[in-house]
Amino acid sequence: MSPKALESDRIEEAVALLTAAFHQEGSATFVFPDPHERSHCLPDFFRSLVAHGLAFGEVYTLDEPMRAVAIWLRPQDGQAAADAEAGDTVPPFARTWPESAQQRFRLLVEHVNTVQARVITEPLWLLWWLGVEPRSQGQGFGSALIQPMLARLDVDRSSCILQTMEEHNIALYERHGFRMLAEDLVPGTGVALWTMRRG
Questions:
Q1: For residue 116, what are the CA distances in angstroms to 8, 55, 81, 169, 183?
Q2: Collapsing DSSP states into helix, strand and coil, what is residue 129?
Q3: What is the rounded distance in angstroms from the CA atom of residue 96 to the CA atom of residue 158?
Q4: Bridge partners, 43 (sequence order)
Q5: Which residue segment(s) compose the domain that 108 sits in?
Q6: In a 3-state reduction of DSSP, which class is residue 167?
Q7: Total-model pTM
Q8: 45: Cβ–Cβ under 8 A, 6 or more apart, which residues?
C-alpha cells in the first residue's frame, strides 16, 4: 500500500469517501442531527476542504479502490487557514445550510481556533483531515497513509499538529508518536476536542 497524491479526476471520489467516513462521527452528528440533512450538506463541506488542501497543502489517497484520504496543510497555510476561519466562521459552503446547523458549526470552529491560537506558537504542519472508508476502518489503512509523510517530516526535522473530536482516534495517533497537548470540551456542545503534536 503506497500513498498517492490525489489527482484532479478523483476529487469526487475523495469527497464521497470523506463524507462516508465522517457521517457518523460526533462533530458531524452534532452539526447535523438529521441524517438526511447530514448526507446532503457534508459533500459540499468536504469538497471545499479537498480544494483547500490541494491549493495550500498536500492531499493523499491510498489503494485501489480508494480506501483512505489525508489532507495536510503546510505550516504557514495551516495557520493561515485557522486565521481565515477565525475571521469567517460561516464560510461560503455553509451559507446554504439551515441556520441552526450554521450556529452549531460556528461553535465548533470558534473553539478549534481558540485552542489553535493557544497551543500553536511556531509554524507547524497540520494533519487537517484523515478519513478511512467505513468498511476498511481498523485494518491499518490510516496508518499506512500517514506514515510516509511522518517519515518525511522526521527527515526534515519538522513538527506537526492535529485535532480530533473522536476519542477512539487517540490511540492511533499515539502509536505514531503524537503526544497530547490539550483536551477540551467545546462550550455548550458536549463535543470533546483533543489536540496532539508530533515532533
A1: 30, 21, 11, 19, 12
A2: strand
A3: 38
A4: none
A5: 3-198
A6: helix
A7: 0.92
A8: 93, 94
SS3 115: helix
Tell me the pLDDT tens digit for each residue of 14-67: 999 999 999 999 999 999 999 999 999 999 999 999 999 999 999 999 988 999
Q: What is the pLDDT of residues 119-155, one digit of tens each?
A: 888 899 999 999 999 999 999 999 999 999 999 999 9
Question: In total, how many domains does the chain have?
Answer: 1
* Identity of the residue numbered 68: A
The angle, 0 to 180 degrees and rounded to 10, between the axes of the packed helices 35-56 and 75-87 is: 130
CATH number reported for the structural domain that contains residue 47 in this entry: 3.40.630.30
Rounded Cα distance between 7 and 186, Å, is 35
For residue 73, give the nearest of 120, 143, 141, 17 by alpha carbon.
Answer: 120
Burial of residue 4, with CB atoms counted within 10 A of its CB: 0-12 exposed, 13-18 middle, 19 or more buried: middle
Give the HSE-up count for residue 128: Cα atoms under 13 Å, Cβ half-sphere. 27
